[in-house]
Amino acid sequence: MINWDEELEKIFADPLFADVTAPQKKITSSDRLIAGFQQIVDFVETNNRLPQKNNNREERTLYNQLQGIRKDPKKVERCKPYDTKGILEKADNNDIISKPAPDYNATKTDVQQLEDIFNDPLFADVSQDNCELFDLPEYMQQRLKERKEADYVAQRVKCEDFDRYEAGFKKIHTGLKSGKYRLIKFKEAHVAQGRYFVEDGILVYIAGLDQIEKNRHGRKNSRTRCIYENGTESGIYMQTLCKNLYHSGYTVQDMSDVEEQYLTKKFSITDNDIESGMIYVLRSLSKDPEIASVPNLYKIGFTTTPLEARIANAKNESTYLCAEVKVVATWRVYNVKSSVFEALIHKLFANVQLQVTVDGKKPQEWFVVPFHVIEQAVTYIINGKSIAYDKTLEQLIVLNE
Predict the structure, then answer these.
(1) What is the pLDDT of residue 383?
(2) What percent of the chain has pLDDT over 70?
(3) How confident is the model over 366-384, as a mean pLDDT?
(4) pLDDT recorded at residue 283
């Protein structure tokens, strides 16, 4: 871990900075006045008397400075905040200075300062019954109220009846892995009671919506009752929920209404179809701890030759991590170049590509991703879906629904 204090000290210790100094602050006449008066205060504190004109040269100088200040009302006002001994009120004699004049007590409590403010004549005519000075016009009050409502984010509190919803969250998690449910890009039209969403990686269920009304911009708005899978709930406004989901959320879509025979029809092979290759998924059987300890590690590739022949010498090839492999799945591809198909999958999972060096080379086709996600990706690409992969959620996101 870098110690920035030490690093900065090394930088500024460089001879290059030897002649670098802080700029000199320009001294003003006001600064000189205050500095001279403070010398007078120091003298009084030390000698417990005012400086006199008949003593040594230094004391005479202070005496003359004090006389010059007293003769000029502006200088008196400028020095008052620094007069802790009541010097400006004393006559020109040898009076003993025992304590500062009451009017120049420099230290006041917060309460005393507030009292001074509210005792100011400016507030003399302001009463509880007549406080127009602080009243905002009605239109400004309305704008502030609407702004607060628009920006309102309800506090999450414990959901007392969470047991009613817990099973539903588990069902969604299971369905996302099996393909029964999928995540799609959020749209405001998706918001409805009974629907699930993902917000900042957490499942949220809309358990209730108040009567929907339109705000001053003509947009629908309503209080919601949102239940979160961590056992909390909130009464967030619908528009605020939408804002959050647009920023970092997705909609959970139920795929159970998809025609069961769709994929069969889609993948039915005829005499007009031309096989162009095979997409395959392999799992490494490496004993190397660096490889074996990585969960969900798969190689995704394609071949136009028999797969068995391709992997026969796997233990001697860096492409296969110099270890035996196991075939997990294969898909035969028709009417499209396998290389294009493979490139799409590699681009999809680029942010979870395994970064490892084997025998001096860096294999490019190994990815850390759950197998069920790979299966879904193959299906979506064949169907022409535009998708992205969220590695935090370990879920595919459909973008063009």
Answers:
(1) 77
(2) 72
(3) 89
(4) 95
Whole-prediction pTM value?
0.50
Please compute the mean of the pLDDT values over residues 298-319 and round it to a whole number: 91
pLDDT at 18: 62
* Ramachandran area for residue 384 (φ above 0: left; ψ -120 to 50: alpha; else beta): left
Type of residue numbered 397: I
